[in-house]
């Protein structure tokens, strides 16, 4: 579902950029310069199960934010490194011992994507590339009946992977000289947990992000 949403977003943005290119051909664009941007917005996180078929989850809403740097290689291509704080994780609900429960696990991560930016037009860029993620800590909430349990963990457990590599694909649309919007999908290539346990199942993080940015 998340992947289909991303592809629909990209196709829609591409259609809009095609009309813009007819009015402003790429060959007439001025030579771009180095730009720094601040960005942030909504994260819709979920996981891909890799072992326990009995484990099920639903998307978890969070946020992300940070900086991007656009390093042009010409009019069409740019290198775009970023540094982001990103919330990942999952949510599960169900019934245990006759009571409904709501369990949410937030993974607070430092994401460092190194992206290739393809400028399809002056206002529209496609992004793709690898991403390094470092797990800063975990915040969990467990609600059942009138009881709520909150726990923060720094993840010193050696079985939990703190360093993960993944991939990103997305797009940015320039609204004016400074303001832009974006959407992207990211996926970890490695499981978060080597063995998988009843409290920490083995899975890969995937996140759909939408946000607003400003070029300085």
Question: What does this 3D model show about the protein?
Answer:
The chain is elongated. It has one helix at residues 2-23, and strands at 35-49, 60-72, 77-96, 99-119, 124-144, 147-153, 163-174, 179-188, 203-215. It has an eight-stranded antiparallel β-barrel with strand order 1-2-3-4-5-7-8-9. It is built from one helix and nine strands. A hairpin with a 2-residue loop joins β5 (124-144) and β6. It has a single domain, classed as Beta Barrel (Porin), CATH 2.40.160.
Shape assignment: elongated
Total count of helical runs of at least 4 residues? 1
CATH topology: Porin
Structural class: mainly beta
Please identify, by name, the CATH architecture.
Beta Barrel
Mean of residue pLDDT values: 80
Helix content: 10-25%
| Rg over alpha carbons | 19 Å
CATH class: Mainly Beta
Strand residue content: over 45%
- Order of strands, main sheet, comes to 1-2-3-4-5-7-8-9
What string, H for helix and E for strand, traces the elements in order? Answer: HEEEEEEEEE
Poorly predicted spans: 17-29
How far do the termini sit from each other? 35 Å
């Amino acid at each position: 579902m998340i992947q289909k949403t991303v592809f629909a977003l990209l196709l829609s943005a591409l259609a809009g950029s095609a009309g813009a290119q007819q009015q402003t051909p790429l060959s007439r664009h001025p030579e771009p310069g180095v730009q720094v941007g601040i960005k942030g917005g909504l994260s819709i996180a979920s996981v891909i199960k890799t072992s326990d078929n009995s484990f099920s989850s639903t998307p978890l809403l969070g946020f992300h934010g940070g900086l991007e740097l656009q390093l042009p290689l010409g009019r069409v291509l740019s290198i775009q490194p970023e540094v982001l704080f990103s919330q990942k994780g999952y949510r599960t609900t169900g019934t245990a011992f006759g009571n409904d429960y709501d369990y949410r696990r937030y993974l607070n991560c430092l994401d460092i994507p190194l992206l290739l930016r393809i400028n399809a037009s002056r206002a529209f860029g496609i992004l793709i590339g690898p991403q390094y993620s470092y797990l800063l800590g975990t915040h969990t909430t467990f609600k059942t009946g009138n009881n709520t349990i909150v726990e923060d963990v720094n993840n010193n457990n050696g079985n939990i992977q703190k360093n993960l590599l993944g991939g990103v694909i997305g797009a940015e649309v320039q609204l004016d000289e400074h303001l832009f919007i974006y959407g992207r999908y990211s996926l970890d290539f490695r499981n978060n947990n080597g063995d998988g346990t009843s409290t920490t199942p083995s899975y890969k993080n995937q996140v759909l992000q939408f946000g607003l940015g400003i070029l300085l």
